[in-house]
């Protein structure tokens, strides 16, 4: 708050709320955008604005574009203190500039950059070292270069790019990265075609094979010779009936194509069973007919093992058309067909084998030459021996290699003889060992594949506690990038996890695709002491084939030295400029970089994607040796929307990236922040809200607060991250806090800086020292986001404004249609009151007939809070709000508690204008207020029972629109005053003001009642609220028109208070003083007024309220310190005037303070549209409070007074102490001792009187300290004060300090020597004598108490301790002081004088 403003002490009013129609609220200053002398530059609602956020959080507008213009990017050249801005615009302020301009902080002026650029500019990069500004966008050539030294456009070294550029950034080695929606082309030698990602799919099957679909590209499964592992687990082949010809009788030849032929018995149907002992995943079968001796099979069917179900097959007929069959499938007998493929119509099946029924034949019988299962692409096992084929000869099988101590295991499933082979290893959690398995699957044809890692479930294997994460590396293309991702093996059931999608080259003598599984660098925690790794297999699923034409393969590169038989590789979306080349043409492969090679994979994914038109790169940043690229792209199974690249390969970030578009990235230390339109990681592992942090050390994602909309830019400013975008709120500690499209994340504190709000969206920014320059479509700003309801409080630093956390209203409210908010300025004349012109003409005519002028009906655009109240339940203070608003299921009326807004059910419709809490009941009124099934106009809700009251209250009614404007309770009564615009309460005539008895539940008319009219506001006067003051426009019982009147509850009479210019809209009584009343309204001349009633007449106050002002409320508020007021207002308070105010020579104000002569601007509200906000209600929780300013003595003087008082108390108590001691000693001298007691030793150091005094002082202190909580802790354990030691075997032991013997001893006394031990049996019957036992002799008798050691548990409170406590207790203000005696420690906040008085009384009684 500005120090020049009066300091209002809201703390004395309890909790204080201000409701209205505003989205932000600030204390007034000359810098207010609504101040008369405010800067000529202001936010624009129709164009983008360039503005600066100062270090203190304030905003300073630099200028705006033409209407409809936008600013997409800004950058700064520090050496010239010049800012460059670009986007889509034709001018900035008054300077013509086409899409790009500059701003000089030295001259505070804008300038055009020559003729500008002929299309939208998306990004800028300022290179201060080279005095250059790079621009990228969707204009001619898409890249432009501006020289700041020559102030002219320069030639781009690499000529141009062929599509829009969205990002430009610098690398650590001086090169530049470009990202966007473009392609670049690189030449390569055809022999190394795969290096660049260009693959041409060639069928693996010979052309003589009759294929179906893509079956010719599939790799046949290798029948594993599991006998290497288990001799009893081999593939079983049975066939019957079999021919008697020995040459053709071995069915095992069917496993090896081309080895031999098997024939069935003559003229007999036969069955061939090929069954294994583990599951194989197959998509079809390749059959070779046994054509020999004129024999051959013509019709067959296949059943799957082990469930023996018939498989529907798809095949290609002689005409080239696909057909399906089940029981009778034809097998070609054409000798030119070397084999025929039959695809499983339903897709891939997991089976252990096939049962082939040979049903028809040619010649003498059926026969087959071989049976092969077709994979779904390719397959490789982690168990080396299961990759070894049964068939001899050249091997087309997969293989696997292991590093570390892996062991082969077999798991036998519940189905008999079905085994799963896998390898496993164990690694201690603290070990740095990273064992691995590398798969080399045999791929018969280059094509596009999905690669899955097959992971056996941990439940069946019993190793769930040790399962962790593993790193997967895929090298699919020779010389290409390695794709890295991390997956979890903690799966309960057998799982196929997708690890890669894209091109895979065929296996050749020089290359084999490889997939490596290893322990992750940062494994997920496990429950045991060891990580358990498992590996079963990889499965390659063919998704598409490539004919090589999509990359202009085979195009010659003319004029390129040293290149022959060249092809072209296309890179999408990324380009690294290292040296001068023509990027618009085919570039030599020597200019490739790792970033360019990533583009090859992106281009492949682009062509496979159904959403290829949305692919784009939006941001590129570098951290260490990794380049992070974000945008809108997906390389299935590998990475989504973000990927990292180093000099050799690409890396998928954890969980395969993010599940939505990435627009921005920023590097801060070891963390990289990404912003965009996403909600979680790609696999859903980590929930995120538009903003995510990637930890490069732990290789993990974490959430950063979160925002409720897309993030479009991120800017590092010192230790803060400035977040920009199309959002309105951030998630701060579980609460939704409104910020607008700008938020600041404090990385040091890991929290949002929630001060301030921007109304609109910010698109771009750049840090400038401690300040930040921003641009976007912003209509206004505020230091406090309050969204219709603000909480006002006063602390040590003065008044502050805060919001209700998690309260976010919708733009619609409880009214079907609301009038749009109007913005008044100090320069506007009376146009605001044109809506009152006709009503006033009517009023002048009606006034002659003694009818009250009507007050125009006004509405408030949603969201608007028009009424408020507080209710204290058993645990907290509930804030109640009413108005025209909705927030989820809450509308009309809301209850705010525990950081949540709830509402009654059913909800309230209409415009709520008045709230009042009476006990546990909430009274609700307004215009067209209605609750379904309950009532209308005035309804009651039980806060304790959380339900509506139905019945029992007659409804208010009237001839026109019924409105309840005010509800107040008369002090210490059950009388509720209801005021508004109505004529009846049920059948009772009760115009404008009606009284409700909350106890008797009945209406009554105040006195004779008003004849007609409307009351807008009420207040009470008198110590017991003896009268109610009403303001509005109404006719008194006497027939007189009045605008302010008083009703006396004592004599039930109405009294009009003087004459005012027109209807009153607000009234306030100064601290119940009926002779000091203020009223505000408007007159027939459209002039607003503020007048004071002194008990006899009205007096016009100052004339600073200009036409256009509407006063909604008047309220007196206390001040923290006295103010030099004048007129009829005391110097300890001010009149707070709220509404929509225009103050002369000041500007537009939401609330002002009136001191009796001057209207002081105090609060200014701003709507989300950037217009002036209005205030409707100030409400507080304290039913009564004092206006008196508290006066305190100077600290030094307070200390002196305290010392003087302490000294006086000390002297007084010392005097009393000695007086009491002397009196007691004198009395004891004159009193004969008891028969059993004798005079004590005169050499005793402490008399019995002293001992008695000390004992009683200590008891008094303990009793006085007990209620207020001080703690006395003895240094020795406290003992019982009982008269016997029944709980101790021998009593209490002590040692005699003096000799006690001689002829003068009396009967009963026991002689003792100094240093002799005695057992005290009784020390309570007398303070002077103890009854004791000599443990050596067993004698018993009495000994002087003063001759023994001091008793434990009755430690004497030393005189110094008493004095210390007296000093502490010299005033009623408790001080946290510690006093200690030699054997006692006293912790006490101090003793009051009353407590010390109790001590003195005890001492007095002892005396």
Report what the structure shows.
The chain is mainly beta and 1407 residues long. Helices cover 8% and strands 43% of the residues. It is built from seven helices and 96 strands. Strands 1, 2, 60, 61, 85, 86, 87, 88 and 89 form a nine-stranded antiparallel sheet that branches. Strands 31-34-39-36-37-47-46-45-44 form a nine-stranded mixed sheet, with helices on one face. Strands 17, 19, 21, 24, 25, 27 and 29 form a seven-stranded mixed sheet that branches. Helix 4 runs parallel beside helix 7. The two termini are 63 Å apart. The C terminus is likely disordered. It comes from Kockovaella imperatae. This is Cortical protein marker for cell polarity-domain-containing protein. Keywords: Membrane, SH3 domain, Transmembrane, Transmembrane helix.
